[in-house]
Amino acid sequence: MSLQYLTIQHWLKRHATYRPHHIAFIYGDERLTFRDLYKEVTQLSNAFLANGIKKGDKVATILSNSKELYETYWACAAMGAVCVPVSPLMRGEGLKNLLKNSDTKLVISCVEFADNFISDTIKIDKTNCWVTNASSSDAYQSYHRKIKENSIANFSIEEIKGDEPYNIIYSSGTTGTPKGIVISHAVRALYGSLFANFYRMTPESVVLHSGAIIFNGSFLTLMPAMFLGCTYILHDHFDADMVIETIKKEKVTHTILVPSQIIGCLQHKDFTGEKLSSLEYVLSVGAPLLQEHKEEIENQLPGIFYELYGLTEGFMTILDKNDFKKKTGSVGIPPPFMEMKIVDAENNELPTGQIGQIIGKGPLLMTEYYKDPVQTKEALQYGWLYTGDLGYLDADGFLFLTGRKKDMIISGGVNVYPSDIEEIIIRHPVVKDVAVFGVPHKDWGETPVAAIVLKEGPNILTANEIKNWINDNLGARYQKVSDVLFINELPRNVAGKILKRELKENYINQSNE
Hints:
The chain is of the alpha/beta class. It is 29% helix and 25% strand. Among the domains are: 171 residues, 3-Layer(aba) Sandwich (Rossmann fold), CATH 3.40.50; 69 residues, Luciferase, Domain 3 (Luciferase, domain 3, Roll); 105 residues, GMP Synthetase, Chain A, domain 3 (2-Layer Sandwich), CATH 3.30.300.30. The strands form six sheets. It has an eight-stranded mixed beta sheet, with helices on both faces. A hairpin with a 2-residue loop joins strand 19 and strand 20.
């Protein structure tokens, strides 16, 4: 079967035909069957077509989690537009540049955000901006009025091919300017089938998503849920109390969380197997989860923890729930049809146990960085994606991460991996969260510094006392931290990844004052 036939174009229509009364989508007090959802999405698809949006045109969303955002995803899938989800936290020139770079033809947003991007510098005016909360007096077009103006009858459009684009997902920009990652219909279709299989999902599964669905990680469950025809529950924002209550009330079987959200849930008294007996799967994504927290999940909710390491560009590994205990510290193996290797700076494959750059290939790779052939060529070489991450394989082929190449600290000519130090620090009883980064040192070139978030309560230890404890418990002299700073919260980007670059810059600036 050719990949050209792998699209997500007709998934919703199929479920509306064969499972019309099954609950498809829950958001707040709204509960839509597949028939209900299909009618609304069809009207939105027709509204796009009636307003000049054609197959291949870019539709940007600047929305928080909402029914409108979810329905836009499936309207674009059905009629062939390319959805460009944008974080509502983006502002000013960065936002305008992103909309301009993506060749956006239509923006769906809300009045609060609209004035941030309406500008002469991009070819978008108020008639090409639909807002979800417009009143009759607003200058912008009303999203809901546009839908009501259009029929629920099926629309006529040419079939989509698998290699045609569905998304442009912009990178979080932790290592530079955000890049537009082009994801095809075939890749999204494989997200649905491959991950549904790996996560042991069925059409009767109930999937909860409480993080922002503008990020690629959300598609790890969003696509399998629609592929199988599961019930998909969306929260407007993450709240640990609301997550726990929803799991209990709706008998949720599958949920996906980033590490900061997992830490929040672990502190909840009802985050236990007894209280949440319906749960079959908790997936950690977005950033490495420290081993201490993994073990706490296993103690509270045994046999349901999965971890995914991956890039939006299309390579990932999954640690299965059954491998958690026997492969401590691993992030698992690639899904079917994917391969990985560890290579050195000269592109030579490294043997078991040696640290090098992780590269991978398979059918989930991006098409390109949008309008950026230079960076595309750097990332995709001979069919392999060069991740920029460091790790090693054990004798069984399981992957162990050691960090990003750009985060690695070289102290006295020795490679120091921050994750090794972080795993020690998190064991201290008063430490809630930690990030280790390198700063310049006149003798050693670089030296590790630890930024620590303390647990609530009476913490009488000083930074110097914790530093001494850390260095006494580290295995190697070159790993020893030269300084410890206490902060209230680790800086993270909108995807939940720790901004070590920001920590480093702030530390150096303060040291020079």
